[in-house]
Amino acid sequence: MSGTSPAIHKTLKEIAQLIDGEVIGDGNVVITGISGIREAEEGDLAFLANPRYAPLMDTTKAAAIITSREITTAPKPVIRTSNPSMAFAKVISILMPNDQKYPSGIHPAAVIGKNVKLGQDVALQPYVVIDDDAVIGDRTIIYAGSYIGYRAKIGCDCLIYPNVAIREKVEIGNRVIVHSGTVIGSDGFGFATVDGEHHKIPQIGTVLIEDDVEIGANVTIDRARFGKTVIGRGTKIDNLVQIAHNVIVGEDSIIIAQAGISGSTVIGKHVTIAGQAGLVGHITIGDNAILAAQAGVTKPVPANTCVSGYPARQHDEAKRLNAFVSRLPQIVDELKKLEEKVDQLEKKISDGTTADNKKRS
Fold this sequence. Notes:
Blueprint: E1 10-11, H1 12-18, E2 22-24, E3 30-31, E4 33-34, E5 44-47, E6 64-68, E7 78-81, H2 84-95, E8 111-112, E9 117-118, E10 123-124, E11 129-130, E12 135-136, E13 141-142, E14 147-148, E15 153-154, E16 159-160, E17 165-166, E18 171-172, E19 177-178, E20 183-186, E21 191-194, E22 197-200, E23 206-209, E24 214-215, E25 220-222, E26 228-231, E27 236-237, E28 242-243, E29 248-249, E30 254-255, E31 260-261, E32 266-267, E33 272-273, E34 278-279, E35 284-285, E36 290-291, E37 296-297, E38 306-308, E39 313-314, H3 315-326, H4 328-360
């Protein structure tokens, strides 16, 4: 961020006071910029959250580093905090606030249907289309090329980025962010197969996105067959995620890129679904569960459980199985050697038996 952001001139001690951190080393070091630990230049403040990057403390050009409280010694001044990532984010928000300019007003190229209700200070960019009877809350911003369907409802202080489709009767809460290319309320994948032909089952439900949800780019959230597909308050969804019809996602969950959740699955609160995890339909994932990357989840997962692998098992069990699998070539070689020894022993026994029989005869 150095060189392109507003100038900073704060001592390390002053910055530590802003984030309730503890300075180890020279607190009078002057910070003039903020950057990642790899990209940092002289005068920059960086942060270190993951211990695996600890060796970078010896090579970074940063003047000082925000670290966890586990760090006891460092080659340069540090601010020790309970959560380095959050502390670093707070420093950025205070010293280098977001200067992004948001659109305002309603562009004449926006298309607004009949009986649409627009709140105060709503912003609509060119080629936004809002269908009949839709409701848009105060201070919500809808960027160019987005579509808001018939009787859809969007709350206050939302950001709808370009080329988003929010289909008919979808309901979105307050302070929701939806990134480009996302489709909310597309038909659920429902077909009945009769005599080899697939007949579409009407999807007459809707989608409810609760407050403070953020949805990444190119996400698809299908409407319910009946009732609602629900994304709980505070949940954050990464890019390229598929959420099928009648799924319910609990509050403050995290869903990472390329995860796929099949229909009617119920996900608890504070659940983490890592990248490329796949979930079958009609199962329940308990609160605080963690589904590791590429997990193939075919059965319910209890609360407070971490699972991985395919089919997904408790993580410790999956690690043991993976360890055994990695040893299979060695085990096969050992089996071949044992087979050879057994063959040799059997031959000796057979030859000895034959010799004894000859002597007796």
